[in-house]
Specification:
The protein has 363 residues and is of the alpha+beta class. It has helices spanning 29-40, 95-98, 101-107, 215-219, 222-238, 280-290, and strands spanning 2-12, 15-21, 60-66, 74-81, 88-89, 117-124, 129-136, 160-164, 183-185, 188-194, 198-203, 251-256, 264-269, 308-315, 318-326, 334-341, 343-354. It has a 17-stranded mixed sheet that branches. A hairpin with a 7-residue loop joins strand 12 (251-256) and strand 13.
Length: 363
């Protein structure tokens, strides 16, 4: 009385979750979402009846198919679930889960290895954004062992290089959706920006914080979270996103001066829980703000004036480095963002969903 669905359970960056070939899921989006809720065990705070890890970072799903556009090798649909809600959000992207897309496709035969390294162009369907992802494939096999380390993941792994091609305005109308690099919204100076992830960047001090608080301290501060949510709702309208009360974006990022050798310190709400680290595309977007004259982040970041900058973004469990290249003709335009992630195949097999949810027939 249960329906088996082929899956690979994978870590991508600092997130993890099941990955599926789109052909193995229902075609109807509403039915597909009900299946994903059953897979993850949502809504339930512990997700005790599914694969979810009782946290937004471990309540994520990847859906992959072969490219349908010229020049695109793979297409990726990211789904964000919540432990205690019955929502499946396919609007934002996730740069962490993105790191596992090419390994998944190679492991399942969707694509062939190209040699000792395989570089494939991946289209993220959520945001219509392309990137080139390079994975080590010695002897035609995905290599997971290596010396690359990323904060938030124990040990080391083989590097996966993600070169983003067109991240500006991934969800919003453009890089600076309000038309300004700095605004005053609900009484607070903010930079509203979208270079892969819609973010509202503001000084920690402007909401009564130092920026060095622990994740537990921030998550336990109900007054602070209420203040940030009020600001988020106002910024949602200013960014052209409408009523964002039920949406997972914009994310809210408190910034302060760096203290651990980086360029800027962050505490990122995603959007109602403080992130233990920072999301990939949030880091790209914060890094972008650091190189834009007049932004809230730029005033805090000790960077030079070169067109190519390596920006180190500090977060509660370490740092995240992003390489950014600005346009020589228009230094306020960021042409390229590149970063390093890792991934690992954790489990392969079948996940079971009740037949009452889906009987396995196309739908």
């Amino acid at each position: 009385m249960q329906t088996p669905i082929k899956t690979l359970f994978m870590r991508g960056g600092t997130s993890r979750g099941p990955f599926f070939n789109e052909a193995d899921l229902p075609a109807d989006p509403a039915l597909r979402d009900r299946v994903l809720l059953a897979v993850m065990g949502s809504p339930d705070r512990r997700q005790i009846d599914g694969l979810g890890g009782a946290h937004p970072l471990t309540s994520k799903v990847g859906i992959v198919r072969a490219g349908t556009r010229e020049g695109v090798d793979l297409e990726f649909l990211f789904a964000q679930l919540q432990p205690d809600r019955d929502t499946v959000d396919t609007t934002p992207n996730c740069g962490n889960m993105l790191a596992a897309v090419v390994p998944f496709a190679l492991e399942t035969g969707l694509v062939k290895p190209q040699g000792d390294k395989t570089t494939l162009r991946v289209l993220t369907r959520n945001t219509d954004m392309c990137c080139d992802i390079t994975v080590e494939t010695p002897n035609g096999q995905v290599n997971y062992a290596g010396d690359a380390r990323i904060d938030g993941v124990p040990g080391s792994s083989a590097p996966i290089v993600i070169n983003f091609l067109d991240t500006a305005g991934s969800v919003c109308s453009g890089l600076l959706p309000t038309g300004q690099v700095r605004d005053v919204i609900d009484g607070i100076e903010v930079t509203c920006i979208d270079n892969g992830m819609p973010l509202v960047i503001f000084r920690a001090a402007d909401v009564g914080c130092s920026g060095q608080e622990s994740v537990a301290e921030l998550n336990g501060n109900d007054a602070l979270k209420a203040r940030i949510e009020r600001l988020r709702l106002a910024c949602g309208h200013a960014m052209g996103l409408g009523d964002v009360s039920a949406k997972n974006y914009p994310k809210m990022t408190l910034v302060s001066a760096p203290t651990a050798g980086g360029h800027i310190n962050t505490r990122s709400f995603i959007p109602h829980v403080c992130h233990d680290a920072i999301g990939v595309l949030a880091a790209v977007t914060v890094g972008t703000a650091c190189v834009l004259d007049g932004s809230i982040a730029r005033e805090l970041a000790p960077l030079g004036d070169g067109l190519i900058q390596q920006v180190s973004v500090e977060h509660p469990t370490g740092e995240f480095s992003v390489e950014l290249e600005r346009d020589a003709a228009d230094p306020q335009n960021v042409r390229r963002a590149a970063l390093l992630r890792t991934a690992r195949l954790i489990m392969r097999g079948e996940v079971m969903v009740p037949a009452a949810v889906w009987n396995g027939q196309s739908g």
